[in-house]
């Protein structure tokens, strides 16, 4: 728990008047819990991505972790430093009591759009991006976090074809209190079966989400029929995923095998770490060359 204590020391500046400190240029994204603006930080002169969290939605999320001292997103984000994780420069509370993050502004496109398009850019870079995403997630795990919401919506591809993980809103410490059963947060179609069934969890729920994301990157489809309700998502528990080679018969069979192992229903049958899965993908990439 020492790393949590360090994070809470000096966990943010005094309240900030957003309109005075930043010159807002245009909105560049809106998630379920936040809005992101391209802005100029008058304090530094930098062009930044300014993320402002919805106060009421953030409050409802925090109520799920009452008594657990879950760090705020800004506290988590500013501690992360990796080539494939967006850099966070500052964070704090606005004069309207909203949490905000000041992040590097990335010229790029959301991975969700590239998944839907399935164009030449995706075909040429898919395996490399899968590996980069795995490297980012492995780093997150090495810092003792569980992401809990890995999906294409939370990933950007830069103009130079570098992948960046950009959202940490549901991340929790990888500690026993946060691994207890009951708290079912995340994006439904990417949730591991043990999370859906409210069983104890660990970093292997991220392995599952990572495998679902890689599966989509190669095929545009989910391993199961798409579903909007949690009841429908129970199919993760009740039926096996569709074999990826049936959708993409020309793909590297070693890559296919690595992805399918990440989708195993039982955590013990999955890759036990993201690092293991990334190593399998790297080995397949070398063989392909």
UniProtKB/TrEMBL annotation:
InterPro entries: Atg1-like (IPR045269), Kinase-like_dom_sf (IPR011009), Prot_kinase_dom (IPR000719), Protein_kinase_ATP_BS (IPR017441). ATP binds at residue 51. This is Protein kinase domain-containing protein. Gene3D superfamilies: Phosphorylase Kinase, domain 1, Transferase(Phosphotransferase) domain 1. Pfam families: Pkinase. GO terms for molecular function: ATP binding; protein serine/threonine kinase activity. The keyword Transferase applies. GO terms for biological process: response to starvation. It comes from Planctomicrobium piriforme. Residues 22-282 form the Protein kinase domain. SUPFAM superfamilies: Protein kinase-like (PK-like). Keywords: ATP-binding, Kinase, Nucleotide-binding, Transferase. GO terms for cellular component: autophagosome; cytosol; phagophore assembly site membrane.
